[in-house]
Specification:
By secondary structure, the protein is an all-alpha fold. It is built from 10 helices and no strands.
Length: 186
């Protein structure tokens, strides 16, 4: 809401939001000294994804609606990309109460998951692609990283996988290819 009014939310305290949105102390995140976290620290896309909906006037449960839609997109994407013999696994994993609870509970992880699924599907093909098609996977990975820090920890493994895939296909480690993926992602 602050960003939609031209105010940088990273420079303002979010403490008034607790009362305004009736956030229970059970929902707070705490510093090591026991005081609640009252400022944003996540990458910007974590909240920017909700801005268009707020600008359209959708203010009640916007995060939940966007998160559930993103989780549904993740399940459908996974279903479409998996081999036919194991497609049902997408429905089983997608319906686990832990993941559904995260989406309904307003946890933003659901929003970056569809992007990460497509990026994971495309990374083995990266070394063989050129032009705009080669950019799709790394750009989606970069967008996922812009939403939350969790995908940052996956990046080294993807880069190692790309370098190893090139070694399998060409006989030499694909350090330059992995570096190109990293550059596009960043």
């Amino acid at each position: 809401m602050l960003a939609n009014h031209g105010v940088n939310p990273y420079t303002h305290s979010m403490a008034p939001s607790f009362g305004l949105f009736r956030v229970s102390p059970n929902g707070y995140t705490f510093h090591l000294n026991g005081t609640p976290v009252t400022s944003f620290s996540y990458p910007a896309l974590a909240f920017e994804i909700y801005q268009p909906f707020l600008a359209l006037g959708l203010t009640v449960q916007t995060a939940v609606m966007v998160n559930v839609a993103a989780w549904a997109a993740a399940i459908m994407t996974l279903f479409a990309l998996l081999p036919r013999s194991i497609r049902a696994a997408a429905l089983v994993v997608g319906s686990l109460s832990t993941y559904v609870g995260f989406a309904v509970g307003g946890v933003t992880d659901a929003v970056y998951i569809p992007l990460l699924i497509v990026a994971a599907y495309l990374w083995p093909r990266f070394a063989r692609q050129s032009g705009p098609r080669a950019w799709v996977g790394p750009v989606l990975f970069g967008l996922a990283m812009a939403m939350k820090q969790t995908p940052w920890f996956i990046l080294p493994f993807v880069l190692a996988g790309i370098a190893g895939q090139v070694r399998i296909e060409r006989g030499t480690w694909g350090i330059a290819t992995a570096g190109r993926y990293l550059a596009i992602t960043l």
